[in-house]
Design a protein that fits this description.
- Strands 1, 2, 3, 4, 5, 6, 7, 8 and 9 form a nine-stranded mixed beta sheet that branches.
- Helices cover 34% and strands 30% of the residues.
- Strand 8 and strand 9 form a beta hairpin.
- The chain has twelve helices and 13 strands.
- It is an alpha/beta fold.
- The chain starts with a helix and ends in a 17-residue tail after the last strand.
- Helix 10 crosses helix 11.
Length: 396
């Protein structure tokens, strides 16, 4: 290799190194040029227009609330005929470019939810910048804008607090738009969404008396319209039926005894057995689980097998009654199958399902349903009776 070729090779290497050192992202934007939205709220006014509320990060003030320098976010709103129109009108009010890829939470006001949310789902399924794994909530008895304005003392952003609340209590169930889309497109089950509720703090003397909490579930029909709500306790029944309940604390009063007993329930299982006779459908539901006694506020000595059987029978009876009440509410009042009964028909009687699926809400509301609950208490803890009781007060 002559000197001329060596010289050319050195020049090529130098140019190549320069190319790597000077290469950058072609669409790179500075963080200070972006309005980062962590929480979106959507409402609808009486004229049918959409109202969008954005919870936007103020970078220099995040984490500075304790020093009194700011609350870490601002809430800006815009109105439009469509959601794209809302986003465009919101941009006209901001000096920075709207940035949606870090979105964590979307909250839907109750009025909009009752009118239907199919348009919102359509936008999220088409726009690549909108994260389809954004978590989805319905605000009961209020407007989404109001939620985004409620401060939450344990977190910098209220939207982050809502997400953490759900993650700490929901077990394996998810609540993203992706999950909702999958539920809405599934046969034999209608989707639900967790509820947020604005409540008043008991500390009336403080300036900020409002806070919020996680509620039960919002029930949507196949047209993606809100038809009603489950309480938090009823939503636990739903999780048990659809086999998504891991652990849950349960408490019951004992018939004929003073006080109550609390257990940590686990290993929850559900079996739905559909039976079709004379074109009528019946469902037999078997629910099982195990429990460990965590609290005994009665005089019963739980080391005695007969007393433990009393506890088990009471739990099974009370849980069965509550489960029947929840199913009846869903079946008769809302006429919407959020429990997967239709899926069991689809699986066991596929030909019959093809005939019934168009009118499944009517078939579901007319179905006969029986429930059997079997909780087995495996452990009672270190003591059988409360330690503060005298020997004469303990029931052996």
């Amino acid at each position: 290799m002559n000197d001329e070729m060596i010289k050319r090779l050195k020049i090529c290497l130098i140019l190549l190194v320069c190319m790597f050192l000077t290469t950058g992202c072609w669409d790179e934007r500075e963080i200070n040029d972006r309005a980062i939205i962590l929480g979106w709220g959507f409402d609808q006014n009486e004229e049918g227009d959409y109202i969008g509320s954005a919870q936007i990060v103020v970078p220099g003030e995040v984490g500075e609330r304790s020093s009194g320098q700011g609350k870490g976010y601002i809430v800006e709103t815009a109105t439009g005929k469509s959601l794209l129109d809302v986003t465009q009108n919101l941009q006209r009010k901001l000096s920075r470019e709207v940035f949606l890829s870090h979105q964590k939470v979307i909250v839907i006001g109750e009025r909009l939810a009752r009118n239907g949310i199919s348009n919102i789902l359509d936008v999220y399924s088409r726009e690549p910048e909108l994260p389809i794994r954004t978590n989805f909530f319905v605000l009961k008895n209020g407007e989404a804008f109001d939620f985004l304005e409620v401060p939450y003392k344990m977190e910098d952003m209220p939207s982050t607090a809502a997400l953490k609340m759900f993650q700490s209590t929901a077990g394996p169930e998810s609540t993203t738009f992706k999950d909702f889309l999958e539920g809405a497109s599934s046969e034999g089950i209608s989707p639900t969404v967790p509820i947020l509720e604005i409540i008043n703090s008991k500390k009336e003397k403080e300036k900020d008396t409002e806070t919020f909490r996680l509620g039960g579930r919002a029930i949507f029909n196949q047209d993606l319209e809100l038809v009603g709500f489950l309480s938090y306790r009823e939503s636990v029944d739903r999780l048990w039926i659809i086999n998504k309940l891991n652990t849950h604390k349960l408490t019951t009063n004992l018939l004929g005894e003073e006080g109550n007993v609390g257990i940590m329930g686990m290993n929850f299982k559900s079996k739905i057995q559909p039976i079709i006779q004379n074109d009528q459908v019946e469902f037999h539901i078997t629910l099982s689980g195990t429990g460990v006694v965590r609290e005994n506020n009665t005089a019963l000595d739980l080391k005695q097998p007969k007393n433990l059987q009393i506890i088990e029978r009471t739990f099974n009876k009370n849980l069965q009654d509550h489960m029947i009440s929840t199913i009846t509410k869903v079946q008769k009042e809302y006429k919407t199958d959020i429990l997967g009964f239709g899926q069991s028909i689809h699986k066991k009687y596929p030909r019959k399902w093809k005939i019934w699926k168009k009118d499944w809400s009517k078939k579901f509301s007319d179905a006969d349903i029986t429930v059997k609950v079997d909780i087995n208490i495996e452990r009672t803890g270190v003591t059988g009776s409360p330690l503060h009781l005298k020997e004469s007060e303990i029931q052996k």
